Amino acid sequence: MNVNSTQPLEYSTEQNRLNILGFWIFLGCEIMLFATLFTSYFIYENRTGSGPAGAEIFEITPVLIETILLLTSSFTIGLAVNAMRLGRTKAMLGFLAVTLVLGAGFLSVEIYEFIHYYHVGATLQTSAFTGMLLTTLGTHGAHVAFGLFWGLFIFLQIKKQGLTPQTANKSFIFSLYWHFLDVMWIFIFSFIYLKGMM
Amino acid sequence: MEFFERFAIPHPSPMIYASMVAIALVTIAIAVGITYFKKWGYLWSEWLTTTDHKRIGIMYIISALLMLFRGGADAVMMRLQTAVPENAFLDAQHYNEVFTTHGVVMIIFMAMAFIIGLMNFVIPLQIGARDVAFPRLNALSFWLYFAGAMLFNISFVIGGSPDAGWTNYYPLANNEFSPSVGVNYYNWALQISGIGTLMTGINFIVTILKMRAPGMTLMKMPMFVWSGLITNVIIVFAFPVLTIALLMGTFDRQLGTFFFATTDGGMDMMWANLFWIWGHPEVYILILPAFGIYSQIISTFSERNLYGYKSMVASMVLISLLSFLVWLHHFFTMGQGALTNSIFSVTTMAIAVPTGIKIFNWLLTMWKGKIRFTTPMMYSIAFIPLFTIGGVTGVMLGIASADYQYHNTMFLVAHFHNVIIPGVVFAMIAGLIYWWPKMFGFMLNEKIGKWAFWFITVGFCFSFFPMYITGLDGQARRMYTYSESTGFGPLNMLSFFGAGLMAIGFAVLVYNIYYSFRKSPRNIGDDPWNGGRSLEWATHNPVPEYNFAVTPHVISSEALWDQKKRGHQIFRDKIEKIHMPNNTGWPIMVAGLFFVFGFSFIFNIWAGVILSAIAIFGFMGYRSFEKDDGRYISVEEIKETEDKFGGANK
User: Is residue B527 within 8 Å of B563, Cβ to Cβ?
Assistant: First the structure.
């Protein structure tokens, strides 16, 4: 395999470069996916039927905690990639672990939030609005949950194989994914929660 | 026993029981045949686990042909049912199921598979690559498509077929009006094969952008590659919308949400909007590669460079943008108001402009060319006037006010078949015949091929032109019968006659494959059409697994033609060892798990859903630890293969 040592490890082979471009295009698909969800959400926003409206069920505290946790995790995955570029495997693994713990924290608070919605009578089966709210949040949450497993597997692989062009490539792509989820969360925070509470 | 009752067919008939028996017998016969000839090992190691883009392409095409006959049988049944007034061959429910499966099978499982098959086979060859960017992902795409297609096709013997039309409009498609599991099948079959298509889209964009031969700039790519690139960009942006729409439909039907309901805030028109935001780009996903194929064939058999290369590219880019801005013209009559209708009316008609540019470019390519009337060229020449008629009736339908008359009539049915059959199906057949020697190393018989062409083309005209007239007279589509006093009888009989001719044409096509397999000469050289212009004709027939012994160099958009006529040198390097991907069994296994997942979800078997989901993710996790760097084909091996074909590089 041709390894180009003038490039960062994650870009060092031809296949790695293809993988990264492919993943960027995949993120394009993901943007369309979330755009469809957001559009549907805006259309259903005021179609609450017999169920509650957003302002009646949103709680700022868990949402703020989730936001802080996820934004911080986006910062730490950036540090992890930075450590990887410096070739510091231990630091890289440390920051990756912190990222995953923060992600798990985010997910726990989100599960708490969903239980809260259930208790105040806002379920998938309440109205089109609550259904779409939970589908949009749930899709994001499912992405985070998938990311946790993905990150965990990358963690184990780096532990086993060290920083190779392959594992570096996987880590870098994972970081793109994680940043993307963060950006989506910023949209959710602004246009679902803040807009709903105004 | 209660568990098994859900698999019963809600609306059985002797025909369905007969097809159950037929399916069982054919399956057993195939299994026994493979065992008898001891081909399981060959099948598994050479085909089912392959990552070779050529073999995946061929498997796509074989599946597409099978689906063509499934959908074709549906079509003949519909024409037979409406051939005479008040026919009792099918009842209303069966007719609903037949037109629904006809539409879905033909669009999703036939046409999509056919274009993706041809793109798989041809694009890496035309850009001078060894394979696609992600060969294993490519295999997974195919097997997911195949799992979805099989899931859809078992619906009529297990649990009942979908019956709400291929557009699956709500509230008709909700639990109240479609109580069988049919629409669940629709949701999951499309979802699973849609994921496969999405991955194909990503795969081909990266392949085309990153893996072109040295010297092949974007504006030197053959037109089919350009059409493939733009098609895949549309796939990437359109299919996620379908993913969400199908998810919302599944939630409505199986988890009790109200997205497309008429109560509790739901809005049934949301489905129509989401469906067509995907659905309209989808028809351009089908037609653009067809345009690419025609561009190649017309240029080859007119012995002229494609006229207006840049305007061809620009018009395709324009079509791809406009394709996302016209979805509402599918439901002008549903009350959006005059302003909205007018805007979409204008965008719809605007598409005629770039399409017209392309038509003139093809005509000007033929102008003063040395035209050879080969079978692929016959299809291409027939395409131009027939497609233009379809396009013009499309503009008629695009006039919002007039659409109130045409909407939901046979006029519409005539229109879209008039663009899809001469547009897409002719291109698929023409492309298949054109590239057949590249796939199998022999030519299809031209004489029999032309018989098939005339049957299909004349049959098409007889089938669909009468529908324009009955449609304008008010015959509604999707009606299983009509009374004699309407006077629709004779023209419908004519349609049935045309459908019969088309069926004969396709049978002749299949016979041609059999005949040519037995009789055609095998020593046909690299360029059997004797006029190939792009890189795929610079390698052998059938193409060796590594495609090109040495990497080709490209100077112009007509790489091979200019080698022949202007002395450009395509092959300059020495043979070196070639890196190839290994075969792998995991794509077919993961797709099998997806099949189990979809099937369980359709019937609300939650244990199956959870177990197969865990298995899918477990599989992915386990595989991520696997290291597979592929393998190398040695120089000696390449030289041996090349010698067999009569020497490398020539």
Answer: no
Question: Measured between CA atoms, how close is A93 to chain B, in angstroms?
Answer: 17
Residue B555, min C-alpha distance to chain A (Å):
23
Q: Do B236 and A32 touch (CB under 8 A)?
A: yes
Looking at this protein, which amino acid is placed at residue A1?
M
Nearest by CB: A131 against B201, B203, B258: B258
Return the amino acid letter for B85: P
Looking at residue B363, its amino acid is L
CATH top class, domain A9-197 = mainly alpha
Count other Cβ atoms within 10 Å, centred on residue B550. Answer: 18
Chain A contact set for B624 (CB, 8 A): 153, 157, 170
Question: Which ipTM value was assigned to this complex?
Answer: 0.95
Q: How far apart are the first and last CA of chain A?
A: 57
Residue with tokens 């504006």: B219
Contact yes or no for B265 and A48 at CB 8 A: yes
B201 closest CA partner among A25, A14, A174: A25
Q: Residue B14 contacts by C-beta under 8 Å, 6 or more apart in sequence?
A: none
* C-alpha span between B348 and B345 (Å, rounded): 5
Q: pLDDT by residue (tens digit) across B161-202?
A: 999 999 999 999 999 999 999 999 999 999 999 999 999 999
- Per DSSP, the three-state class of A181 is helix
Q: Is the CB of residue B631 less than 8 Å away from at least one CB of chain A?
A: no
Contact indicator for B440, B412 with CB cutoff of 8 Å: no
Residues of B in contact with A18 (CB under 8 A): 133-134, 206, 210-211
User: For tokens 């009789």, what's the residue?
Assistant: B519
Asked if the Cβ–Cβ distance from A36 to B240 is below 8 Å, we say yes
The pLDDT > 70 percentage for chain B reads 99
Kindly state the helix (H) or strand (E) to which residue B231 belongs, with its residue range: helix B223-250
A32 in contact with chain B, both atoms CB, cutoff 8 A:
yes
Cis peptide before B171 (omega within 30 of 0): yes
Helix, strand, coil % over all residues of chain B, rounded to 5? 70, 0, 30
Q: CB-based contact (8 Å) between B617 and chain A?
A: yes
B619 in contact with chain A, both atoms CB, cutoff 8 A:
no
- Determine contact: A43 vs chain B, CB below 8 A: yes
Could you read off the pLDDT of B267-322 as tens digits, one per residue?
A: 999 999 999 999 999 999 999 999 999 999 999 999 999 999 999 999 999 999 99
- Enter the DSSP assignment of B164: S
Chain B neighbors of A28, CB-CB under 8 A:
236-237
- B20: its two tokens: 């159950």
Domain ranges of chain A: 9-197
Give the whole-angstrom CA distance, residue B108 versus residue B514: 27
CB pairs under 8 A between A and B: 111
Digit-coded pLDDT (tens) for A50-79? 899 999 999 999 999 999 999 999 999 999
Distance CA A192, CA B272 (A): 24
Q: How far apart are CA B271 and CA B248, in angstroms?
A: 9
> Is it the case that residue B66 has pLDDT exceeding 70?
yes
Inter-chain touch A126–B247, beta carbons under 8 Å: no
Interface of B with A in 398-457 (CB under 8 A): none
Our measurement of the distance from residue B336's CA atom to the centroid of its chain's CA atoms, rounded to an integer in Å, reads: 32
pTM, rounded to two decimals:
0.95
Any residues with CB less than 8 A from the CB of A12 and at least 6 apart, and which? A3, A4, A5, A165, A168
Distance (Å, whole) CA B35 – CA B505: 33
